[in-house]
Every structure is written in C-alpha cells, then in structure tokens.
Amino acid sequence: MIRITRTLSIADSEIQEQFIRASGPGGQNVNKVSSAVQLRFDVVRSPSLPEEVRARLIVLAGRRISQDGILTIEAQRFRTQGRNRDDARVRLVELIRHATEVPELRRATRPTRASQRRRLESKQRRGDTKKQRRTVAETDG
C-alpha cells in the first residue's frame, strides 16, 4: 500500500514496474544490467482515485500519460535498480499529491486607476527613449 495523503492511498497491485536498461553512467555495467525502472499506473481505471483528483492528475501528467490513461514514469537517475524503483514511486506520489491540491479560483479584478496611470506613464517614457535614439534627418537649406 502506497500512502499519498492521510485519506488517499494506492494498492501495490495498481502499479506495474518493468526494469529496462538505462542510458547514462555505469560504464560496462550499463550494457548488461537492467537498472532503469518504467513504472506504469492506470489513472483512468484506478479505484483509489476520486474523480476530481483523477481529472487534475491527467492534466498534470501531460505527455507522460497515454491515450489509454496510463501514466508512465521512467527512472534511471541512479545506478541501482532499488534506488531507481524508489525514485519512480516517490515521483508518482508527488504527482498524485500535487493533483489532490484544489487550485484557488482566480477572481477577475479591474486594474486600479493608479496602476493604469503608471502603465501609461512608463509607456510614454519608453516611447520618448526610443524617439531620442532616432537619427535626425538633414534638411536642405
């Protein structure tokens, strides 16, 4: 059982791990040992996730989630299989924990009169600076 928050946890059976060969550090060992971990979690069919968390997780996962709704996390930062496995699980927990946070709704507000005035003044100053940089055209005379 993987604990996400006090009220949310995921069963180990919902996670599939596959060990693959990693690129990167490891010397000759990297060619013969499958130390990288590819963790898969079916977001769409998971009975553990509430519907609103599921929707936010799909958005947060971005390109790490397939069309079928399977979240894939690859971990190959470390040289050992165990540390990569722990790293993948920690990253999954952090992602789901982030999805449990309800974002604050932004209330549309109008800019204050003073901020509008400051903005227009700064635009005027910027325009004056650019005018000063122009070359002066010679007049026939």
Automatic annotation (TrEMBL):
The highest taxon in the source lineage is Bacteria
Which keywords accompany this UniProt record? Hydrolase
Question: What Gene Ontology molecular function terms does this protein carry?
Answer: peptidyl-tRNA hydrolase activity; ribosome binding; translation release factor activity
Q: Where is the composition biased (Basic and acidic residues)?
A: 118-130
Q: Where is this region: Disordered?
A: 104-141
GO terms under biological process: rescue of stalled ribosome
Which named protein is this? Aminoacyl-tRNA hydrolase
